[in-house]
Design goal:
The complex is a heterodimer of chains A (114) and B (115). With 114 residues, chain A is an all-beta fold. Chain A is built from no helices and eleven strands. The mean pLDDT of chain A is 94. Helix content of chain B is 0%, strand content 57%. Classes of the chains: A mainly beta (114), B mainly beta (115).
Chain lengths: 114, 115
């Protein structure tokens, strides 16, 4: 059983650029969530997708957007990058969106904005 | 506003002894809690969870205790092993308006188990 995979593992961008991060969910999982983990902080919820629809969103501006595809893989897009967007971006999948369903995390994409 | 707090950034314990990691929360609407463990260069992995209808849940060497009146939970690891050295995150599950759930994490506690 393949786990959650994210690409790329590391990325360096400059302020104002746009970035796309990718995530393949674990086999059989239809729900994908994205989290941002800044240095020294816990992961913060960005948004969740269930069967290709956004299911809920955290306190992030509209320049953070996402997609979920029919195979349940997902993308996180960030426009107009700011220095504070430098963080580890974690994707997590779950078998369904039941509220007590545990999440399975990928290893993350480390984004540096210069 | 930090709704889930882990006030100890680090903890050092000798191998074989008990490790106790603490977590406090402020939102009384939280009713399901989880602990995740994270090694460097890996994503967090689920460890153990507890529902608010219980005050204790045990899984092998790991036990989580919940004190709802104090809005406090703790993770006990007995006996501690060097492989337990990692960052431990406490998380609370909240409902999304669209029907799913999101996790609110604490800032983590770095556990080091020494030989």
């Amino acid at each position: 059983e393949t786990g959650v995979t994210q690409s790329p593992t590391h990325l360096i961008k400059t302020r104002g650029q746009q970035v796309t991060l990718r995530c393949s969910s674990q086999s059989g999982h239809n729900t994908v969530s994205w989290y941002q983990q800044a240095l020294g902080q816990g992961p913060q919820f960005i948004f969740q997708y269930y069967r290709e629809e956004e299911n809920g969103r955290g306190n992030f501006p509209p320049r953070f957007s996402g997609l979920q595809f029919p195979n349940y893989s997902s993308e996180l897009n960030v426009n107009a990058l700011e220095l504070d967007d430098s963080a580890l971006y974690l994707c997590a999948s779950s078998p369904n969106r039941d509220r007590n369903e545990k999440l399975f995390f990928g290893s993350g994409t480390q984004l540096s904005v210069l | 506003d930090q709704q889930v707090k882990q006030n100890s950034p680090s903890l050092s314990v000798q191998e074989g002894r008990i490790s106790i990691l603490n977590c406090d929360y402020t939102n009384s609407m939280f009713d399901y809690f989880l602990w995740y463990k994270k090694y460097p260069a890996e994503g967090p992995t689920f460890l153990i969870s507890i529902s608010s209808i219980k005050d204790k849940n045990e899984d092998g060497r790991f036990t989580v205790f919940l004190n709802k009146s104090a809005k406090h939970l703790s993770l006990h690891i007995v006996p501690s092993q060097p492989g337990d050295s990692a960052v431990y995150f406490c998380a609370a599950s909240g409902i999304l308006t669209g029907g799913g759930n999101k996790l609110t994490f604490g800032t983590g506690t770095q556990l080091k188990v020494e030989l």
